[in-house]
Amino acid sequence: MTDTQKPLFETHTLATLSRAQRIFVGRGDEYGDTWRDCAFLKMEAVARALRCEIKPEHFRALAVAAFADMKYWRFLGGFKDDHLIDGINYDAFLAEEMRQLLGESK
Questions:
Q1: What is the pTM (predicted TM-score) of this model?
Q2: Residue at 56 is within a domain
Q3: Helix runs in 32-80, H state only
Q4: Is residue 2 one of the residues assigned to a domain?
Q5: What is the DSSP letter of 3?
Q6: What mean pLDDT do residues 86-94 have?
């Protein structure tokens, strides 16, 4: 490996993270700030019907965890790059959401 050549793991990972960023920025432009503004009305209604008490600030973490699980399970239908890229984005969002909810420092 030459001094200017980066390791393959770094090169591939950076390329994928760049694609992931383009996708979540594009979706934010397209859909707006749904993760900040969404009230999770159906999830709240289901929780009430099941007599589950869930703090409002925890609904977002539960929702993104469900989205991440769904992306993972879509591999049962075969490989699709979108499953991986969206999975990275949902997992990244969940990691930060949980860090903040648990009061962990950066």
A1: 0.85
A2: yes
A3: 34-37, 41-49, 56-73
A4: no
A5: T
A6: 96
